[in-house]
Protein backbone atom coordinates (compact mmCIF):
# COMPACT_ATOMS: atom_id res chain seq x y z
CA UNK A 1 0.00 0.00 0.00
CA UNK A 2 1.69 3.18 -1.19
CA UNK A 3 1.76 6.45 0.74
CA UNK A 4 3.51 9.79 0.31
CA UNK A 5 6.39 10.30 2.70
CA UNK A 6 9.00 8.35 4.62
CA UNK A 7 8.47 5.54 7.10
CA UNK A 8 7.23 7.08 10.32
CA UNK A 9 4.98 9.62 8.57
CA UNK A 10 1.35 10.12 9.62
CA UNK A 11 0.23 8.56 6.33
CA UNK A 12 1.92 5.30 7.35
CA UNK A 13 -0.30 5.25 10.43
CA UNK A 14 -3.31 5.70 8.14
CA UNK A 15 -2.12 2.78 5.99
CA UNK A 16 -1.87 0.53 9.05
CA UNK A 17 -5.33 1.60 10.23
CA UNK A 18 -7.02 1.15 6.83
CA UNK A 19 -5.17 -1.99 5.68
CA UNK A 20 -3.74 -3.73 8.77
CA UNK A 21 -2.42 -6.63 6.68
CA UNK A 22 -0.82 -4.35 4.05
CA UNK A 23 2.85 -3.45 3.70
CA UNK A 24 3.37 0.34 3.72
CA UNK A 25 5.42 1.46 0.70
CA UNK A 26 6.93 4.99 0.90
CA UNK A 27 6.56 7.20 -2.20
CA UNK A 28 8.01 10.64 -2.90
CA UNK A 29 4.80 12.36 -4.07
CA UNK A 30 1.05 11.96 -4.39
CA UNK A 31 1.53 11.51 -8.14
CA UNK A 32 3.86 8.57 -7.48
CA UNK A 33 1.30 7.00 -5.14
CA UNK A 34 -1.38 7.23 -7.85
CA UNK A 35 0.91 6.01 -10.65
CA UNK A 36 2.04 2.99 -8.62
CA UNK A 37 -1.58 1.95 -8.06
CA UNK A 38 -2.57 2.58 -11.68
CA UNK A 39 0.35 0.51 -12.97
CA UNK A 40 -0.33 -2.37 -10.57
CA UNK A 41 2.98 -1.94 -8.77
CA UNK A 42 0.99 -1.27 -5.58
CA UNK A 43 -2.35 -2.88 -4.79
CA UNK A 44 -3.67 0.28 -3.17
CA UNK A 45 -2.67 3.74 -2.02
CA UNK A 46 -3.48 6.06 0.88
CA UNK A 47 -3.58 9.85 0.47
CA UNK A 48 -4.47 12.65 2.92
CA UNK A 49 -7.50 14.58 1.76
CA UNK A 50 -8.41 17.08 4.48
CA UNK A 51 -7.11 18.46 7.76
CA UNK A 52 -9.22 20.13 10.43
CA UNK A 53 -6.77 23.05 10.70
CA UNK A 54 -5.21 23.39 7.24
CA UNK A 55 -8.29 22.41 5.21
CA UNK A 56 -8.34 20.49 1.94
CA UNK A 57 -5.14 18.82 0.74
CA UNK A 58 -5.77 20.12 -2.77
CA UNK A 59 -2.95 18.22 -4.49
CA UNK A 60 -4.41 14.87 -3.43
CA UNK A 61 -7.83 15.74 -4.81
CA UNK A 62 -6.36 17.01 -8.06
CA UNK A 63 -4.27 13.93 -8.81
CA UNK A 64 -7.30 11.75 -8.02
CA UNK A 65 -9.49 13.83 -10.32
CA UNK A 66 -7.12 13.17 -13.23
CA UNK A 67 -6.75 9.46 -12.44
CA UNK A 68 -9.03 6.48 -13.00
CA UNK A 69 -8.76 5.22 -9.43
CA UNK A 70 -11.59 4.78 -6.94
CA UNK A 71 -11.97 5.68 -3.29
CA UNK A 72 -13.21 2.68 -1.28
CA UNK A 73 -12.64 3.73 2.34
CA UNK A 74 -11.79 6.74 4.48
CA UNK A 75 -10.48 7.31 7.98
CA UNK A 76 -9.57 10.28 10.16
CA UNK A 77 -6.74 10.07 12.69
CA UNK A 78 -5.55 12.53 15.35
CA UNK A 79 -2.41 14.47 14.42
CA UNK A 80 -0.14 15.43 17.31
CA UNK A 81 3.01 17.25 16.28
CA UNK A 82 6.26 17.09 18.25
CA UNK A 83 9.44 19.15 18.06
CA UNK A 84 12.29 16.65 17.66
CA UNK A 85 16.04 17.22 17.86
CA UNK A 86 19.23 15.21 17.92
CA UNK A 87 20.51 14.06 21.33
CA UNK A 88 21.94 17.08 23.14
CA UNK A 89 19.67 19.61 21.41
CA UNK A 90 17.61 21.97 23.57
CA UNK A 91 14.38 23.83 22.91
CA UNK A 92 16.11 27.19 23.36
CA UNK A 93 18.85 26.29 20.90
CA UNK A 94 16.58 25.47 17.96
CA UNK A 95 16.82 27.97 15.09
CA UNK A 96 15.12 26.01 12.29
CA UNK A 97 12.20 23.57 12.29
CA UNK A 98 11.65 21.35 9.26
CA UNK A 99 8.43 19.64 8.26
CA UNK A 100 5.82 19.16 5.56
CA UNK A 101 4.16 22.49 4.58
CA UNK A 102 0.75 21.29 5.80
CA UNK A 103 2.24 20.34 9.17
CA UNK A 104 3.96 23.73 9.47
CA UNK A 105 0.64 25.46 8.82
CA UNK A 106 -0.89 23.54 11.73
CA UNK A 107 1.69 24.97 14.17
CA UNK A 108 1.35 28.72 13.60
CA UNK A 109 1.01 29.52 17.30
CA UNK A 110 4.29 27.76 18.07
CA UNK A 111 6.17 29.82 15.47
CA UNK A 112 4.48 33.02 16.66
CA UNK A 113 5.66 32.30 20.21
CA UNK A 114 9.23 31.58 19.02
CA UNK A 115 10.08 34.05 16.25
CA UNK A 116 13.73 32.97 16.31
CA UNK A 117 12.72 29.55 14.90
CA UNK A 118 12.53 29.54 11.09
CA UNK A 119 10.02 27.16 9.48
CA UNK A 120 11.58 25.17 6.63
CA UNK A 121 9.32 23.14 4.32
CA UNK A 122 10.36 19.65 3.18
CA UNK A 123 8.44 16.89 1.43
CA UNK A 124 7.33 14.98 4.54
CA UNK A 125 7.14 15.05 8.34
CA UNK A 126 9.04 11.81 8.85
CA UNK A 127 11.43 12.80 6.06
CA UNK A 128 12.21 15.92 8.09
CA UNK A 129 13.01 13.75 11.11
CA UNK A 130 15.31 11.60 8.98
CA UNK A 131 17.08 14.72 7.63
CA UNK A 132 17.59 16.20 11.09
CA UNK A 133 18.99 12.91 12.40
CA UNK A 134 21.43 12.71 9.48
CA UNK A 135 22.54 16.35 9.84
CA UNK A 136 23.45 16.05 13.53
CA UNK A 137 23.03 19.83 13.95
CA UNK A 138 21.90 20.94 17.43
CA UNK A 139 20.15 24.00 15.96
CA UNK A 140 17.91 21.95 13.63
CA UNK A 141 14.65 20.30 14.63
CA UNK A 142 11.85 18.40 12.92
CA UNK A 143 8.12 18.67 13.43
CA UNK A 144 6.75 15.14 13.19
CA UNK A 145 5.13 12.40 15.26
CA UNK A 146 6.70 11.09 18.44
CA UNK A 147 6.93 7.72 16.68
CA UNK A 148 9.01 9.25 13.89
CA UNK A 149 11.36 10.64 16.52
CA UNK A 150 11.83 7.19 18.04
CA UNK A 151 12.38 5.65 14.61
CA UNK A 152 15.19 8.08 13.76
CA UNK A 153 16.72 8.37 17.23
CA UNK A 154 15.63 11.94 18.01
CA UNK A 155 14.79 13.47 21.38
CA UNK A 156 11.42 15.02 22.17
CA UNK A 157 11.98 18.75 22.77
CA UNK A 158 8.32 19.79 22.97
CA UNK A 159 5.05 17.97 22.40
CA UNK A 160 1.64 19.05 21.10
CA UNK A 161 2.76 21.85 18.80
CA UNK A 162 -0.51 21.78 16.82
CA UNK A 163 -2.72 24.84 17.23
CA UNK A 164 -5.65 22.74 18.50
CA UNK A 165 -5.79 19.50 20.45
CA UNK A 166 -8.51 18.13 18.15
CA UNK A 167 -6.27 18.36 15.07
CA UNK A 168 -7.10 15.50 12.67
CA UNK A 169 -6.38 14.47 9.09
CA UNK A 170 -8.75 12.47 6.90
CA UNK A 171 -7.33 9.93 4.44
CA UNK A 172 -8.69 8.06 1.41
CA UNK A 173 -7.87 4.47 0.48
CA UNK A 174 -7.65 4.29 -3.34
CA UNK A 175 -7.65 1.25 -5.66
CA UNK A 176 -8.02 0.41 -9.36
CA UNK A 177 -11.52 -1.08 -9.10
CA UNK A 178 -14.51 -0.12 -6.96
CA UNK A 179 -15.38 -2.61 -4.19
CA UNK A 180 -18.68 -3.85 -2.80
CA UNK A 181 -19.69 -2.88 0.73
CA UNK A 182 -22.43 -3.59 3.22
CA UNK A 183 -25.63 -1.80 2.07
CA UNK A 184 -26.62 -1.13 5.69
CA UNK A 185 -23.65 1.21 6.23
CA UNK A 186 -23.88 4.99 6.09
CA UNK A 187 -22.38 5.86 2.73
CA UNK A 188 -20.50 8.76 1.22
CA UNK A 189 -19.97 9.68 -2.43
CA UNK A 190 -17.12 11.92 -3.61
CA UNK A 191 -17.41 13.87 -6.88
CA UNK A 192 -15.37 16.28 -8.98
CA UNK A 193 -17.69 18.58 -10.95
CA UNK A 194 -16.92 21.16 -13.64
CA UNK A 195 -19.75 23.55 -14.49
CA UNK A 196 -20.44 25.90 -17.36
CA UNK A 197 -19.75 29.53 -16.46
CA UNK A 198 -23.31 30.84 -16.27
CA UNK A 199 -25.40 32.49 -13.54
CA UNK A 200 -26.96 30.04 -11.11
CA UNK A 201 -25.01 26.95 -12.21
CA UNK A 202 -23.54 26.22 -8.77
CA UNK A 203 -26.86 27.04 -7.08
CA UNK A 204 -28.60 24.47 -9.29
CA UNK A 205 -25.96 21.84 -8.54
CA UNK A 206 -26.21 22.31 -4.78
CA UNK A 207 -30.00 22.27 -5.04
CA UNK A 208 -29.84 18.66 -6.21
CA UNK A 209 -28.51 17.61 -2.80
CA UNK A 210 -30.73 19.96 -0.79
CA UNK A 211 -33.92 18.82 -2.54
CA UNK A 212 -33.09 15.20 -1.66
CA UNK A 213 -32.15 16.01 1.96
CA UNK A 214 -28.62 14.75 1.36
CA UNK A 215 -25.91 15.95 3.73
CA UNK A 216 -23.22 17.79 1.75
CA UNK A 217 -20.16 17.30 3.96
CA UNK A 218 -17.42 18.87 1.83
CA UNK A 219 -17.15 21.41 -0.98
CA UNK A 220 -14.02 23.09 -2.29
CA UNK A 221 -13.31 24.96 -5.52
CA UNK A 222 -10.06 24.50 -7.42
CA UNK A 223 -8.74 25.82 -10.75
CA UNK A 224 -9.68 23.59 -13.68
CA UNK A 225 -7.64 22.91 -16.82
CA UNK A 226 -8.43 26.25 -18.56
CA UNK A 227 -7.65 29.73 -17.17
CA UNK A 228 -10.38 31.17 -14.94
CA UNK A 229 -12.42 27.98 -14.95
CA UNK A 230 -13.03 25.94 -11.81
CA UNK A 231 -13.86 22.47 -10.62
CA UNK A 232 -15.76 21.71 -7.43
CA UNK A 233 -14.81 18.90 -5.09
CA UNK A 234 -17.92 17.62 -3.34
CA UNK A 235 -18.74 14.87 -0.87
CA UNK A 236 -22.20 13.95 0.38
CA UNK A 237 -23.59 11.31 2.73
CA UNK A 238 -26.54 9.03 2.03
CA UNK A 239 -28.06 5.95 3.64
CA UNK A 240 -29.08 4.11 0.45
CA UNK A 241 -26.93 3.51 -2.60
CA UNK A 242 -29.79 4.46 -4.94
CA UNK A 243 -30.03 7.90 -3.31
CA UNK A 244 -26.41 8.56 -4.20
CA UNK A 245 -26.77 7.18 -7.72
CA UNK A 246 -29.85 9.30 -8.47
CA UNK A 247 -28.22 12.47 -7.14
CA UNK A 248 -25.08 11.77 -9.15
CA UNK A 249 -27.10 11.20 -12.33
CA UNK A 250 -28.98 14.46 -11.82
CA UNK A 251 -25.71 16.30 -11.18
CA UNK A 252 -24.16 14.91 -14.36
CA UNK A 253 -26.90 16.56 -16.43
CA UNK A 254 -25.82 19.98 -15.12
CA UNK A 255 -22.06 19.50 -15.39
CA UNK A 256 -19.71 19.96 -18.30
CA UNK A 257 -17.68 17.16 -16.70
CA UNK A 258 -18.37 14.95 -13.71
CA UNK A 259 -15.93 12.44 -12.23
CA UNK A 260 -17.19 10.08 -9.52
CA UNK A 261 -14.25 9.35 -7.23
CA UNK A 262 -16.17 6.67 -5.42
CA UNK A 263 -18.98 5.61 -3.11
CA UNK A 264 -17.75 4.14 0.15
CA UNK A 265 -18.62 3.65 3.84
CA UNK A 266 -18.57 7.00 5.63
CA UNK A 267 -16.04 7.19 8.43
CA UNK A 268 -17.67 7.30 11.86
CA UNK A 269 -15.76 9.09 14.63
CA UNK A 270 -14.88 7.11 17.72
CA UNK A 271 -14.02 8.31 21.18
CA UNK A 272 -10.73 10.28 21.42
CA UNK A 273 -9.29 7.51 23.59
CA UNK A 274 -10.00 4.87 20.94
CA UNK A 275 -8.46 6.95 18.16
CA UNK A 276 -5.38 8.19 20.01
CA UNK A 277 -2.25 7.90 17.86
CA UNK A 278 0.94 7.52 19.84
CA UNK A 279 3.14 5.38 17.62
CA UNK A 280 4.26 5.70 14.03
CA UNK A 281 2.31 8.36 12.21
CA UNK A 282 2.03 9.85 8.71
CA UNK A 283 1.10 13.13 7.14
CA UNK A 284 1.01 12.76 3.51
TrEMBL record:
<dbReference type="InterPro" id="IPR045865">
    <property type="entry name" value="ACT-like_dom_sf"/>
</dbReference>
<comment type="pathway">
    <text>Amino-acid biosynthesis; L-phenylalanine biosynthesis; phenylpyruvate from prephenate: step 1/1.</text>
</comment>
<protein>
    <recommendedName>
        <fullName>prephenate dehydratase</fullName>
        <ecNumber>4.2.1.51</ecNumber>
    </recommendedName>
</protein>
<dbReference type="GO" id="GO:0009094">
    <property type="term" value="P:L-phenylalanine biosynthetic process"/>
</dbReference>
<dbReference type="InterPro" id="IPR008242">
    <property type="entry name" value="Chor_mutase/pphenate_deHydtase"/>
</dbReference>
<dbReference type="GO" id="GO:0005737">
    <property type="term" value="C:cytoplasm"/>
</dbReference>
<feature type="domain" description="Prephenate dehydratase">
    <location>
        <begin position="1"/>
        <end position="176"/>
    </location>
</feature>
<keyword id="KW-0456">Lyase</keyword>
<keyword id="KW-0584">Phenylalanine biosynthesis</keyword>
<dbReference type="GO" id="GO:0004664">
    <property type="term" value="F:prephenate dehydratase activity"/>
</dbReference>
<feature type="domain" description="ACT">
    <location>
        <begin position="190"/>
        <end position="268"/>
    </location>
</feature>
<keyword id="KW-0028">Amino-acid biosynthesis</keyword>
<dbReference type="InterPro" id="IPR002912">
    <property type="entry name" value="ACT_dom"/>
</dbReference>
<dbReference type="InterPro" id="IPR001086">
    <property type="entry name" value="Preph_deHydtase"/>
</dbReference>
<keyword id="KW-0057">Aromatic amino acid biosynthesis</keyword>
<dbReference type="Pfam" id="PF01842">
    <property type="entry name" value="ACT"/>
</dbReference>
<dbReference type="Pfam" id="PF00800">
    <property type="entry name" value="PDT"/>
</dbReference>
